[in-house]
Specification:
The protein is built from 7 helices and 7 strands, in the order E-H-E-E-E-E-E-H-H-H-E-H-H-H. It is α/β, with parallel strands linked by helices. Helix 3 packs antiparallel against helix 4 (120-134).
């Protein structure tokens, strides 16, 4: 699987990243994810934005980067000259304080946001690692060593398929289309699919893994 980096990535990204996880003779076989490390930054994508469920419906937040010419995605600097971290934490507190697992995962998530990671690559990587660990998902992340234009050969390439402004069939292709889980504002508006993976984590906690990988659910 080949994916672009993502900031608190959507459920379709996370489900794609972990789809190779399997059980063999009682042992967990990790999924292998190739993460694109040799592209230039692309604005208005999940590389620095995420979507969550607010009181009035879906909301998006992003963090600014330092615009100093074309840089490889691994070299793009995060801009801390505006209070985007405080804004993000306040928005998440407001949206998820009543969710079943927010209090359990809040400090771990916020400590990464507060860490002041210098680059987009490392900030995203730490957040992705936090999500994978919290969901008990075994994924080996391998940065790419060179850029291969799409479609790449030899593996599934979703680098430019999972995009906030372009509809796709990723969830349907993974057998998750129409699959729902508990959401905080379920009494105010219908279920919202494919939000940031934090929406799934805060609402389902350790059962997030079984939502993403229903084949591993012993009750199915």
């Amino acid at each position: 699987m080949l994916l672009s980096t993502a900031y608190l990535p959507p459920i379709s990204w996370m489900a794609s990243a972990c789809r190779g996880i399997a059980l063999q003779d009682g042992k967990v076989i990790p999924s292998t994810l190739h993460l694109e490390a040799n592209e230039n930054f692309i604005k208005q994508t999940y590389r620095n934005r995420f979507t969550f469920a607010g009181a009035s419906g879906p909301e998006s937040l992003s963090y600014p980067i330092v615009h100093d010419g074309h840089r490889l995605i691994t070299e793009v600097l995060v801009d801390y000259s505006t209070p985007w971290v405080a804004k993000t934490k306040k928005a998440l507190d407001s949206a998820y304080y009543s969710s079943p697992y927010f209090e359990y995962y809040r400090d771990g998530l916020f400590s990464i946001l507060d860490s002041g990671e210098e680059t987009l690559w490392m900030l995203n990587l730490r957040l992705i690692g936090f999500l994978l660990s919290s969901m008990h998902l075994c994924v080996d992340i391998l940065p790419t060593t060179s850029f291969v234009p799409p479609p790449s050969s030899g593996e599934e390439d979703l680098r430019y398929v999972i995009h906030p402004k372009h509809p796709d069939t990723v969830l349907e292709d993974l057998g998750l289309g129409g699959r729902k889980y508990y959401q905080v504002f379920r009494d105010k508006y219908p279920f919202i699919p494919n939000l940031s993976s934090i929406d799934l984590l805060f609402n389902e906690g350790p059962d997030s893994m079984l939502y993403l990988l229903p084949s591993l659910d012993p009750l199915r």
